[in-house]
Amino acid sequence: MKWVLFVLSVLFVTVSIIGCASMREGSSPQLGGAPKAYMNDMPMEAEQVPAASRAALGAPQKIAQTLTNTATVQRPDEIKERKKVYNGFCSLEVVDVEEVKDNIREYVLSIEGYIEASYDTRLTIRVPSEKFHESFQWMLNQGKVLLEQVETFDVTDQFQDLEIKLKLAEDTRKRLYKLLERTTDTSERVRILREIRRLSEQIESLKASMELLRKSINFSRIDIQLQPLLAGYQGQTSNIPFGWIRGLMPGVVSIPGLDSDVTLSPGSDFAVFSDRPYYYAESSRGIRISIGTTRNRPEGDNLFWQKALDYHLSPGYSVSMPVTIREDLVGVYLESYDYNPFIYEIYLTVRGNQIVIIEIFYPDREIFQESHETLREVLNQVIIP
């Protein structure tokens, strides 16, 4: 009995000590909400965790409206090929929206891609990553290019960290199963089973997160906004006097700069692709969160900017209404004109001469209804210095 208690004590002390050490090391972009628990609770032997795998993402370079986010630390001796995620967005002016949508669908199927979402004037497609650049160029040739943007995220270190944590969790669970076989005391068996159950939940979460990353690595996403040549006000933003509002795009990193240490934990269902120089996370169901900061020009308070968002964006959406999370975090809810609309929420808080802006994109109303209460509670807990 005593040796069982001693072994358990050593195991749990090791978990706590190594978890704290992992937190002090720092990490690459993490899975929202889950990593802290993993690092605190999971026994991690220092020699098994390469220091370079903690490399933070470097600053992106914008060249010809292209955002690039890559790791600053390279390990050619250990990594033969970097794992990258490509996201593209383009806004095109076209003569016939439906004809162009049909052409895009036919093209995507021909290269073994698929349609992820379809709206009245917007398509979200997935194409094999090796064909991303040629596919994106093909899209640009379908109309007059009003805007184009490419985001590149190097997730090599993040993926490797997940692999390491998964292996350590599985190895720890195996040791606990062996200990369980040798233990006859009922209370000790309960403790061991409780820890096995907790580790099993973490293992499933890690596997789901790795699968989400694999999907993003293997199939690049391209969002195409189609604007008819003879369009009315809908989709037109050229008359908006505030540049950052004029540049807002649902589901895209609209404001690629973050000058505030915002702390947000969206949950284990999200993969965080970047936390600097802007925050971007995506869930397995296609919910996208981005955070950026912009100058408070002209100088206004939260209510001023909330009213500005509602007034200038409402003509382009079927539903627009103000939303308040807490006193210092307000925003608007927007619903597209589509039969199965996407939902776009924009929240902001003024911090002196800066505005911190949080954008959330829900692919459809069903996903919004199932997830928005949880995410709004997350926003209620967000820390904005």
How does this structure look, described?
There is one protein chain. Among the domains are: 2-50 and 157-206, no CATH class; 240-385, 3-Layer(aba) Sandwich (Protein Transport Mog1p, Chain A). Helices cover 38% and strands 26% of the residues. The chain contains 9 helices and 14 strands. The chain has helices at 2-25, 35-41, 97-110, 132-140, 156-182, 186-218, 243-246, 302-313, 365-381; strands at 61-62, 66-69, 84-94, 114-118, 122-128, 144-154, 219-228, 270-274, 279-283, 288-295, 319-326, 329-335, 343-351, 354-362. It has a 7-stranded mixed beta sheet. The protein has a 7-stranded antiparallel beta sheet with strand order 8-9-10-14-13-12-11, with helices on both faces. 36% of the residues are buried. Residues 1-8 and 10-77 have low confidence and may be disordered.
What's the helix and strand layout?
Elements (H helix, E strand, L loop, with lengths): L1 H24 L9 H7 L19 E2 L3 E4 L14 E11 L2 H14 L3 E5 L3 E7 L3 H9 L3 E11 L1 H27 L3 H33 E10 L14 H4 L23 E5 L4 E5 L4 E8 L6 H12 L5 E8 L2 E7 L7 E9 L2 E9 L2 H17 L4
Parallel strand pairs: 2-6, 3-7
Antiparallel strand pairs: 1-2, 3-6, 4-5, 5-7, 8-9, 9-10, 10-14, 11-12, 12-13, 13-14
Helix pairs in contact: 1-2, 5-6
